[in-house]
Amino acid sequence: MGGIGSGGAREGAGRKTVDGEPRTKISVTLPTWLLNLIRDEADRRKVSTSQLITEFLTKGLER
């Protein structure tokens, strides 16, 4: 157990990003019906809930 090279972060380890952009986790409170609507739409589009919310926010903030 242990020894040289054990423990710590390793380059290339962990989950790969979808679009090469680093992610930050946030917490929001939504009505249950709205989250269900978002999840259903994400399933329909075959994308993650996070990807769909990112798309909604990006499009909504464009001028």
TrEMBL record:
<feature type="region of interest" description="Disordered">
    <location>
        <begin position="1"/>
        <end position="22"/>
    </location>
</feature>
<feature type="compositionally biased region" description="Gly residues">
    <location>
        <begin position="1"/>
        <end position="11"/>
    </location>
</feature>
<protein>
    <recommendedName>
        <fullName>CopG family transcriptional regulator</fullName>
    </recommendedName>
</protein>
<feature type="compositionally biased region" description="Basic and acidic residues">
    <location>
        <begin position="12"/>
        <end position="22"/>
    </location>
</feature>
